[in-house]
Amino acid sequence: ALTHTARTNGATLFMVLQTALATLLSHLGAGHDIPIGTPIAGRTDDNLDNLVGLFVNTLVLRTDLTGNPTFTQLLARVREAGLTAYTHQDIPFERLVEELAPTRSMARHPLFQVMLALQNNATATLDLPGLTTTSLPTGAPAAKFDLQLDISEHHDPTGNPAGLTTRITYATDLFDQKSIELLGRHWVHLLATFAADPTAPVHSVDLLTPDDRRHVLTAWNDTSTGDPTQPLTALFAAQAARTPDATALVHADRQLSYADLDARSNRLAHRLIAAGIGPESRVVLLGERSLDLVVAILGVLKAGGSYIPLDTRYPAARIQQILRESSARVVLSDGLLGRDIELPDGAVLLSTGPEAVAAFPDTAPAVPVHPDQVAYAMYTSGSTGIPKGVMATHRNIAALAADRMFHPAAHRRVLLHSPLAFDGSTYELWVPLLSGGTVVLAPVGETDPAVFRSVLTEQRVTGAFFTTALFNLLAEDEPEALAGLGELLTGGEAASPAAMAAVLAACPDTVVSHVYGPTEATTYATGHRLPAAPLPRAIPPIGRPLDNTQVFVLDDQLRPVPPRVAGELYIAGTGLARGYLGRPGLTAERFVACPFGAPGDRIYRTGDIVRWTTDGELEFVGRTDDQVKIRGFRIEPGEIQAALASCPGVAQAAVLVREDTPGDKRLVAYLVPAPGSAEAGHGGDELAAQVRQYAAERLPEYMVPSATLVLTALPLTVNGKLDRKALPVPTYSTGAGRAPATLREELLCTVFAEVLGLPSVGVEDSFFDLGGHSLLATRLTSRIRTTLGTELPLRTLFEAPTPATLAQRIDTTTT
After folding, report:
1. What are the tens digits of pLDDT across the range 371-392?
2. 429: left (phi over 0), alpha (psi -120 to 50) or beta
3. What does the angle CA 443 – CA 446 – CA 449 come to, to the nearest 5 degrees?
4. 319 contacts 284 by C-beta, under 8 angstroms
5. Half-sphere exposure of residue 388: CA atoms within 13 angstroms, side-chain side
6. Is residue 423 within 8 Å of residue 523, measured between CB atoms?
């Protein structure tokens, strides 16, 4: 059939095979301009016929798949491009590489990485006078290309085509056998499809077999357990009635029972109702981690409202922006007092303390609350420079808390250490409260490994979530501190197999689970429990969908892709948030109609690239845009870039994440001074310092770049786009200035350099100017305790960030 298709279209069998292979590679994510290498005999001169030797050259055949052509149309393109290439087959491949000068890498072959060869000689032996020749297989000791497909054509005794045999040689660093078997099956499927109907559009052909489709759409998404039918307020009230004397909250030496928490939140609810709070009225919460803040959350919900948690570490400008956008009716805070922040028109400021509500009744207010009412709006970074508030409903949160992944025994006492403005707190708060467990609040402020060890041990914590970066820190410094946990959840960035192996080895009785989920899917959408043995040597998958969650891996036309093929992850199910507060256009863009569900069902476009394993688990591959996660926080570099570009004296700004040291992601800003400014044409140190201060006043700490470089111009590609590869690597340290004057200064310089991964640090170098951030700061204080025997509060480092000033502070403290 393939031979007939070739003849009908004036092409060769090889051209048909090339067309189908290019189509397959395009379906697998290689784009629409597919270069394929092929060997050419190199015997165009009849005078070479009697010479024995290798004249083979390599041709690069490019296939243009733009415009969704039919197979016959694409075959015509392949024929035209191939005939043109054959006229230039005498040009050595090496000369072509020399002329084009592509970026060379030891990791891949230049110009193409897939080789296709068709062996269609009638005989495999040479007929030479006086010699008997035999063909011997040579084997494949090493892969010369990422993929090499060698095809042999067979004929019956009458000379008619009798079949094709393909041998695929592949680089085992890139592919496993199952992936190659799938690739082979998909190629055969395309060939059969096009042989049967050459008029089929190449991009409309479905690679999925019926069995594949059943797995990726149905079997691996069979997670239904029934949606929650009650709001959080009713679920908590029922739990408080069942276990009134059980401990609900613990913070240091203070605690509240379920009955106490219920009564105090009822009083606050009546106070809020008196202040005008009703169904879905918005209440901003701003305060340090405390029992009062948890009471405030429940009080807001019982009044029918929704809460907007803000981090006290946010700069005043960001708090002001969110207050303005949210149109909050009430601000519950003791942390706003004394700060230069204006309340929105008509909003009132109320205290979160118990004395402010003592006069109100402790009975439950008669306020109807529906499961689909908004419970909170949590703000995340926005690509346009404006943070966006994700609205989660009571049903969303209740579904997460009821998930079978959270076994009550392992999550009986859960650590609440995440900022309430970070979606990890949703698990930390509601999983224990709706199952009769205890929420253990971590101490106020930043926590280092020693503090975690103390609180986990003293409070007998059984369940906790740590962002990947914090998990890696604990795995390096205090892995045995996690031994008392029944289950430990981690996620947010690419996991470290070494860190996971260290924790599993040190804590054999602790279950470690790798979780994944955007805020728009209410914290977690998938999870994978790591086996205790063998210890992980590769990044673990992000797992299977949680209860009442469906996940789809789709191509750019919203079609499901087969296992082992990368595509964009879309999420559906009960955990899907309502959308973005006050942003209907963005909501419609990211929450789209689900093509696989009932009418009205939605799916959320995550922007994450994943692939199914053959066992039905998801592996994380990357992002479709510039969005990143650093220390567990989702960051849109565009938001930071917009803030920096608005700074006086800045003409252009670019922000990207660098990982110059494996596992250590840092934000780096590149600036171009405004024409005529004092910094134009100079080193830019003053502008860099000015911009850092400007950013710190407007952005959360985790969004302030670790390094700021001032350039005369941003490098551009030939297409006029930012050439990210040409941006210089930041130098975080010069080690300049005076030499250490004391042993303590010398030791501090050494510890600074070790923690920051730098060859040296000067006495006057600032920890934060060298690329340090709050998570590295916790590691530094731990190292100082070990090296100098000095207990150092984390805030001291922020006040005295250089070895010189820190040494003085330590001297003053010890004397």
Report:
1. 999 999 999 876 556 789 999 9
2. alpha
3. 85
4. no
5. 25
6. yes
